[in-house]
Write a structure and sequence with these properties.
A nine-stranded antiparallel β-sheet has the order 14-15-16-17-25-22-21-19-20, covered by helices on one side. It has two domains: 118 residues, no CATH class; 267 residues, Golgi alpha-mannosidase II, domain 4 (Beta-galactosidase, Chain A, domain 5), CATH 2.70.98.30. It is mainly beta. Helix content is 8%, strand content 41%. The protein contains five helices and 26 strands.
Length: 431
């Protein structure tokens, strides 16, 4: 017969578990949610606050039983970004101790149906918290457990510090070990392109254009010192920390670093910089970060403030209408749909109080633009990204250049839905 303790445990579980709701299919989710990394802060997990993260794990219902899913606890640095052990940016608080700003990260798509009392009773360890997302008529759940030895073997992403190769579930990216801003190869796994482009992107391009009186100068990726020195690989995301500095025309314009984050379908470049007042001697300074596509003429391009009718890439008409496609700090996204079941969003972010001017950049060889060298593949078949000017010198800032990509993010011709979901991650309720 069950012991009194067992009866009490089952009674407790029954009190917090109701019958699963059948309103929605948990396997159906929007493309933007499928790529989403769900983050829960320590502040939202009061039972875990000020405790070591090591004893805890995350589980979800799959195939009728509670199974471990990939997760990671990440400390936060003094810059408000994920802390990288052995990096140069100090941790805020204590390493391995769950504090208010620290983060529990896992994939939205790994959440399951609501566990029943029998599934919970059969689980090793102690149930601490139930995590719930209730969206579009569908409930998704995951469970924080203490003292469970099971761990998922699935790894969504890995950065090899020695070779500079990024491997994720969805893509691989080769970057320079000397400069993480320099890409030499980028491949989408299982992607079928066109004859002249078995892949999608040529490369990412960073351009810094300065003018002081009659003197002009331009820097590109390889001329911007970005020294990689530490990485944190977790099953859900890999975080790489690097120094970064910027000098042009003999003026030190910025010093700081970058904490690059790779997930299964995203690449985020949050840069933290101090912009000294010395930069005010420049007549102008423009920073462009663009993505050069290889050969996808006929793709559709949109911006947050542009016309609803997409610009069609690789056409002469694009020269006359591209200036209509605009962005600003409150509407900071651009997007392209290749027509090959693959779409990309490019978002710009910044911290409050750091307010440069934001514009959209679009180049196209068919519209009369010259090739924006250097290029790995000849010709610019469409190139787009954010452009910053009027940088507020004499202040510190965090600038984010974030890429989100995958199949059918536009869902026909509706990029606004994906943009809204990327901007507003799903809300997690902690029981």
């Amino acid at each position: 017969m069950p012991t009194i303790a067992k009866k009490l445990r089952l009674a407790f579980l029954c009190s917090i578990i109701s019958a699963p709701l059948l309103a929605g299919d948990i396997n159906q989710m929007s493309p933007a949610r499928e790529l989403e990394v769900t983050v829960v802060t320590g502040k939202e997990l009061p039972k875990l606050l000020n405790k070591a993260s090591e004893p805890y794990s995350l589980m979800a219902v799959s195939d009728g039983q509670l199974l471990p899913i990939p997760f990671q606890f990440d400390d936060v640095s003094l810059k408000g970004l994920v802390h990288v052990p052995n990096g140069k940016v100090p941790v805020k608080g204590k390493v391995g101790i769950i504090e208010e700003n620290d983060q529990l990260a896992f994939m939205y798509k790994d959440m399951g149906t609501k566990a029943n009392p029998e599934q919970l009773a059969a689980m090793e360890g102690t149930l601490i918290s139930e995590l719930e997302i209730n969206e579009d008529g569908t409930q998704r759940y995951a469970y924080i457990v203490e003292g469970n030895t099971q761990r998922s073997k699935k790894v969504y992403t890995y950065y090899d510090f020695e070779t500079g190769l990024v491997e994720t579930e969805y893509f691989s990216l080769q970057v320079s070990t000397d400069n993480i801003l320099v890409w030499s190869d980028w491949k989408i796994k299982g992607f079928n392109g066109v004859e002249t482009a078995t892949n999608i992107l040529d490369t990412m391009k960073v351009r810094v254009k300065a003018r002081m009186g009659f003197i002009k100068a331009t820097l590109h990726n390889s001329l911007i010192p970005v020294h990689t020195y530490a990485v944190k690989n977790g099953p859900v995301r890999s975080i790489v920390e690097a120094d970064a500095s910027l000098s042009i025309l003999g003026i030190d314009l910025a010093s700081g670093g970058v904490t690059v984050t790779y997930t299964a379908q995203t690449i985020e470049y949050p840069l933290f910089f101090l912009f000294p007042k010395a930069g005010e001697v420049l007549s102008s300074l423009i920073l462009n970060v663009t993505l050069d596509f290889i050969d996808f003429d006929g793709s559709r391009y949109r911006t947050a403030l542009g016309p609803k009718e997409p610009l069609i890439t690789g056409t002469k008409e694009s020269e006359d209408i591209r200036d209509q496609y605009k962005v600003d700090l409150d509407h900071p996204w651009e997007t392209i749909s290749t027509g090959k079941n693959w779409d990309m969003f490019f978002f710009f972010e910044r911290n409050n109080g750091f307010d440069p001017t934001l514009n959209a950049v679009y180049f196209d060889e068919k519209a009369g633009d010259k090739a924006n060298k250097p290029e790995r593949y000849k010709g610019s078949h469409s190139e787009f990204g954010p452009s910053l000017s009027d940088l507020p010198f004499g202040s510190e800032g965090i600038l984010g250049f974030n890429l989100y990509f995958g199949p059918d993010l536009w869902q026909g011709n509706n990029p606004e839905k994906a943009a809204d979901q990327i901007t507003n991650p799903a809300i997690v309720i902690v029981h």
